[in-house]
């Protein structure tokens, strides 16, 4: 069974600081990887996803993530955060080529950006 | 363009009562998912449907939980009888196809409190 670890539960940054949120998964086969964001009072929405091709994936709002297969990692990055990036970020994985769409989520990282 | 619609948004009930949560997926989407989010367990999949057929219900906690999808535009998640430990936010999501790489679009959630 797959599992996802997000080691940073809370992150506090000042505006313009760089961001990197860690995500590691455990699964020996091929995976699809996702980052979702939940802004205060809103529903989860997709930031970006990886399912094949270039391991460096660019998403909305200036976010990107890099899939490093050898490290079982899919870290999320943004070079300069804004106050509006305050939200909770979830990494998720599903096992590719199994036919199952089940997403397994990490426990989330709460990001607070101070102005 | 309407997203996933869930009702009610908030539900407060007493232990032992029946609770029914409702979901309308995005029109044209073929897959529907029910998730539960708690502080202790995070976001976990309960059940999902492809073309109105249940595919994976391994996340349904026990027989008190049941889910139906009578047609492509409506699904229910029922808890009978409800217990305080069922208190959580329940999300419905839909995706356009049945591929594992398809994005899942989440609704706003139903916050359930069982007293």
Using only C-alpha atoms, the radius of gyration of chain A works out to 14 Å
SSE series of chain B: EEEEEEEEEEE
- Helix count of chain A equals 0
**Strand tally of chain B, please?**
11
How would you describe this protein?
The complex is a heterodimer of chains A (115) and B (115). Chain A contains no helices and twelve strands. With 115 residues, chain A is an all-beta fold. In chain B, a hairpin with a 3-residue loop joins strand 4 and strand 5. Helices cover 0% and strands 54% of the residues of chain B. The mean pLDDT of chain B is 94. Chain B is mostly beta strands.
Keywords, please?
heterodimer; A: 115 residues; mainly beta; six-stranded mixed sheet; four-stranded antiparallel sheet; B: 115 residues; seven-stranded mixed sheet
Briefly, what is this?
The complex is a heterodimer of chains A (115) and B (115). Chain A is mostly beta strands.
Give the secondary structure arrangement, pairings included.
The complex is a heterodimer of chains A (115) and B (115).
Chain A: E1 3-5, E2 10-14, E3 19-21, E4 24-26, E5 31-38, E6 45-50, E7 56-58, E8 64-68, E9 73-78, E10 87-95, E11 104-105, E12 109-114
Chain B: E1 5-7, E2 10-13, E3 19-24, E4 31-38, E5 42-50, E6 53-56, E7 65-71, E8 74-79, E9 88-95, E10 105-106, E11 110-114
Parallel strand pairs in B: 2-11
Antiparallel strand pairs in B: 1-3, 3-8, 4-5, 4-9, 5-6, 7-8, 9-10, 9-11
């Amino acid at each position: 069974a797959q599992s996802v670890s997000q080691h940073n539960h809370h992150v506090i940054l000042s505006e313009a600081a760089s961001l990197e949120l860690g995500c590691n998964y455990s699964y020996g086969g091929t995976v699809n990887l996702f980052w979702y964001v939940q802004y205060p009072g809103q529903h989860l929405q997709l930031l970006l996803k990886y399912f094949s091709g270039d391991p460096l994936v660019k998403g909305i709002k200036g976010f990107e993530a890099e899939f490093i297969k050898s490290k079982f990692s899919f870290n999320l990055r943004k070079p300069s955060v804004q106050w509006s990036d305050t939200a909770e970020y979830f990494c998720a994985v599903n096992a590719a080529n199994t036919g199952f769409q089940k997403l397994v989520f990490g426990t989330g990282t709460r990001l607070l950006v101070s102005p | 363009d309407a997203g996933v619609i869930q009702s009610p948004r908030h539900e407060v009930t007493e232990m032992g009562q029946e609770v029914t949560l409702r979901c309308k997926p995005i029109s044209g989407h073929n897959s529907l998912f029910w998730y539960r989010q708690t502080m202790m367990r995070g976001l976990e999949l309960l059940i999902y449907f492809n073309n109105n057929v249940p595919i994976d219900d391994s996340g349904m906690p026990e027989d008190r939980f049941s889910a139906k999808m009578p047609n492509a535009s409506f699904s229910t998640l029922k808890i009978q009888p409800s217990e305080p430990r069922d208190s959580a936010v329940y999300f419905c999501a839909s995706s356009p196809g049945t591929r594992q790489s398809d994005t899942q679009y989440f609704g706003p959630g139903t916050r359930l409190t069982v007293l």
